[in-house]
Amino acid sequence: MERSRDPATRFNGGDLGYFTTDVMPEAYDTALKEAKPGQIVGPFAVENGVALVKVEDRRLEQPITLEAARPQIVRFLTYDRIRDLLEKLRGKAKIETLIKPADGAPRETPPADAPKTTPNKGTPS
Description:
27% of the residues lie in helices and 10% in strands. By secondary structure, the protein is of the alpha+beta class. The protein has a two-stranded antiparallel ribbon with strand order 1-2.
């Protein structure tokens, strides 16, 4: 553990702590799926080299309490309502482009229900 070069864990001596394999790269999931406490697994290839892991303990993930989840739930519901409001406002918005696109720039296609207009040719000289 004293030789870890992993930028995320090197200051903890390479200790990964408790984690679920769904948040780790796939190589860890594959290598650690059947590992038992006390077992050394690896070396196995990871993104920046190789890993050698000693499984210290295994435990079931504890379900989150309602009080701990409350800020995430409130944030989700708030963002959901804001998104719905923005979609309604965008649907009612009337957008008029005042700047002509530069030559060669891609032009947006007008909505199907937009009135057809012809470009102003100017006055004859």
